[in-house]
Amino acid sequence: MEKHSSKVKKNPVQRRVAVGDFQIDLEEKAAINEVLDAGRISEWKKVAEFEKLFADYINTECCVAVNSGTSALIVGMSALINDFRFPKVKKGSKVITTPLTYIATINAIVLAGMEPVFIDVDLKRFSILPQKIREHLENVNDPENYSIILPVHLMGYPCDMDEINSIAVEYEMVVIEDSAQAHGSLYKGQKTGSLSLLSIFSFYIAHNIQAGEMGAVVTGDKVLAGLIRKLKANGRVCDCSVCTRPNGYCPYFPQEDGDYDPRFVHDVIGYNFKIMEFEAALGVSQLKKADIIFEQRQNNVRFLNEHLNKYSDDLQLPEFSKNVSYLAYPIVVKERSRFSRKYLREKLEKNGIESRPLFGCIPTRQPAYNYLKREYEGKMPNAEYIGKNAFYIGCHQYLDQVDLKYIVATFDMILS
Length: 416
Fold this sequence. Notes:
- By secondary structure, the chain is α/β, with parallel strands linked by helices.
- It folds into two domains: 26-287, Type I PLP-dependent aspartate aminotransferase-like (Major domain) (Aspartate Aminotransferase, domain 2, 3-Layer(aba) Sandwich), CATH 3.40.640.10; 290-415, Alpha-Beta Complex (Aspartate Aminotransferase, domain 1).
- The chain has helices spanning 26-38, 45-58, 69-82, 104-111, 130-138, 161-170, 222-231, 277-287, 290-308, 341-350, 362-365, 373-376, 381-389, 401-415, and strands at 62-66, 94-97, 115-118, 146-150, 174-178, 186-187, 190-191, 198-202, 215-219, 315-316, 329-333, 356-357, 390-393.
- The strands form three sheets. A seven-stranded mixed sheet has the order 1-9-8-5-4-2-3, sandwiched between helices. It has a four-stranded antiparallel sheet with strand order 10-11-13-12.
- Helix 4 (104-111) links the parallel strand 2 (94-97) and strand 3.
- The longest helix has 19 residues, at 290-308.
- The relative contact order is 0.16.
- Residues 1-11 have low confidence and may be disordered.
């Protein structure tokens, strides 16, 4: 006799559609094996190769690779603090930024010893509003204590850099772009990350260019890049990307000066933000595919917009642009929608479609920053609304037509 289980069997999910993916093919395997065959896995030639290629890609003079996008922000701001050319940038000074971002942006400001000041964002592109920055600076008692403007190109959408840079010049502030989610996005024909004194990128596993855990600082200022290179290596005196001592030459301590090793002489207090050759090797292989990756992500956004536009009464779909390198597919639940974000996310997950909330308004919704809640509550309506009502699903390059049609069919099932 056939035995029957007393447990109720759940209907299996037809398909899994992840927010992000990373598939190792022959090229990636060859890159990793090249590192292993070279016999050195700490920072060396692959890191230098990646830095050169990425600087060329963004169209900046210098690139310094570090172990994460968060580290890139911390070391970038720390370099400005340690550079006498930027006297306004000091511990205790204020950094104007967005409340709608991954928390690493704000953590880095605080960890660098500065104070975040939050300005509201645009409802459609999630970008900090320049006019609100100007209004804020015109009405504060201490504009001289404001040192940095830190816009975030969230979800790949470029901020209005002309206006932001103009305000920064007027108030003698420095601009740092957080381009962690915007590899390849264009602002008036220029890549994000090339529009300010320095910019940071993240190559986290779900990002457009992927390497697992890696970040980078790019800048056109060679002096600043050298300081960043020192700081990321515990403040050691040398800022060489590849050590020349094995070749019998050192620009810091010539042989006749005695038995000095610049790798163990430190003239500033720094961090250990170095990376391994593996991440850089993956980054190099991904950069070779960058144009294909971005085109595929754009095609996926275009397809989803065309097929989900019928739900525009309930959902604000992402604005499409050929200038945007999309990190993901962001959706805002409209005020008069029949459905809540929670309901939609639960239904999507039940049907195998991963989603993530769009971060949340940091000073009013993140427990780590509860001490700022009273100061900012009710003052940033756009960021608060998006933080409560927006989420995103994947649009990455590994999705195929079956995946995309399944996403549309699932929305049809939920919303019709």
